[in-house]
Amino acid sequence: MERKLAEHARENSVLKAQNDGETSELRKAHADLVREHNQLKTSNAEEIAELNHKIEELQEEISEMAHERDALDNAERANVELNMRRLREKIHELTLEKKSQLEKFNDEKNQLNTIIDLQKRNLENEIRITDEMSERHKLKEEATAKEIMELQKRVHQLAHNRTHKDSEAVMDEEDDTTNNIKSFLAGIKQHDHSEKNCDPALAETHFSPSQASKSISELSVSTPKPGKSSTEEVAPSPIPNDPTSPPRSPPPPPPPSPTLTSSSSASSPLKFTSRVLDFELSSSNDATGSRSSPSKDATGSSRSSHVKSPADARSNLISELQSALKFREAALE
Predict the structure, then answer these.
(1) Where are the stretches annotated Disordered (predicted)?
(2) What is the Cα–Cα distance from 265 to 127, expressed in whole angstroms?
(3) Interatomic CA distance for residues 101 and 82, integer angstroms
(4) Which of 63, 100, 131, 278 has a Cα at 20 to 30 A from 329?
(5) 246 and 284 in contact (C-beta within 8 Å)?
(6) How much is the average pLDDT of 273-285?
(7) Which residues are registered as beta bridge partners of 296?
(8) % pLDDT > 90, the chain
(9) Burial tier of 272 (Cβ tally within 10 Å: 0-12, 13-18, 19+)
(10) pLDDT of 233-261, one tens digit each?
(11) Domain residue spans in the chain?
(12) CA atoms within 13 A of residue 52's CA, in its CB half-sphere
C-alpha cells in the first residue's frame, strides 16, 4: 500500500510539475493575448476614429448632394413647366390653324360641289343634245342608205343597159373587122393568082397598093376602150411612094398569145399597119419595075443581104393577118 501511495505521490508530483509548467506557459500565452488585445484595441480605436471621420465627411457630401439635387429638381421642374407651357401654346396655335384650314376646306368643298353640279347639268344637256343629234344622224343615214340603194339600182340598170348596147356594138364592129380581114386576104390571094397568070391588068384590078392602104384604114377602126371613142384612134401617116428608096423589111411577127381577148385582137390591125405599108411600098416598086441598088456602108460592104424581098414581106403579112383572123374568131366564140 505504501508502495502504491509512494507511486501515486510520485505520479502526483510529476503531474503537478507538468501542470505548473503548463500553467506558466498558459500565463505567458494569456499575457501575450492580453497584450495583443490591447494593441488591437488601440488600433481598432484609431481605425474607428478614422472611420467616424470619414463617415462625417461622407455625411457632409451627402448633404451637399441633397442640396444640389434639390436645386436640380427645382431647375428641372421649372424647365419642365416651361416646356409644358410652350407645348400648350403650340397646341393652341395648331388648333386654331387646323380650325382655319377646316373652314377653308369646307369653303373649297362647297365651291367644288357647286362646280360639279354645274358641270353635271352641262353634261346632261350635252348628252341630251348628242342623243338628239345621233337620232337625227341615224334618220339621215337611213334616208341616205335608201337613196344609195336606189342609186345603186339605177346605176346597175344603166350599166346593164349600157353593157347590152356596148356588147351589141362590139359584136357589130368585130364582125366588120373580121369581114375586112377576110376581104383583104381574098384580095391578096387574087393578086397572087393574077401574078401567076401574068395578067398585070387583072392584078391591078383585083388588088393594088392603094387597095391595101384602104383596107388598112378600115382595119384601123377597133373596138372602143372604156373612156375613149373609136374616133380617137390615130390613123397611120402615109409613106411617100419613092421608087428610088430600098424596100423596108418588116420586123419578125410577134408570137401568138393563147390568152388573147377580143379587145387585144380588135387592136391587132394597128400592129400590121407598118407591115402593110412596107408591103405596099415593095409592091409599088415591083409594079414599076424599079430595083434599088444595094447600098454600102462606110466600109464598102453591101447591106442587101439584110433586106427582105417583097415576097417575104408579103408572106409575113399574110401569115400575121391569118393569125389575127383566127384570134378574132376564137375571141368571138
Answers:
(1) 1-25, 207-315
(2) 65
(3) 28
(4) 278
(5) no
(6) 47
(7) 302
(8) 19
(9) buried
(10) 333 444 334 444 444 444 444 444 433 33
(11) 156-224+235-288+308-332
(12) 6
Cell numbers given for 307: 433586106
Contacts of 218 (CB under 8 A, 6+ apart): 180
- 236 burial level (CB within 10 Å; 0-12, 13-18, 19+): middle
Q: Which three cell numbers stand for residue 160?
A: 346593164
Q: What is the pLDDT of residue 94?
A: 93
Residue type, 255: P
Helix spans in the chain (H)? 2-196, 200-206, 209-219, 262-266, 268-271, 273-288, 310-332
Question: Taking all residues of the chain, what is their mean pLDDT, rounded to a whole number?
Answer: 69
118 versus 181: the higher-pLDDT residue is 118
Asked if the model's pLDDT at residue 103 lies above 90, the reply is yes
Are the CB atoms for 222 and 230 separated by under 8 Å? yes
| Residue in 112, 252, 121, 280 with CA at minimum distance from that of residue 188 | 280
> Are 191 and 203 within 8 A, CB to CB?
yes
Burial of 216 (0-12, 13-18, 19+ CB in 10 A): buried
Residues 6+ apart with CB under 8 A from 78: none
- The length of the chain, given as a count of residues: 333
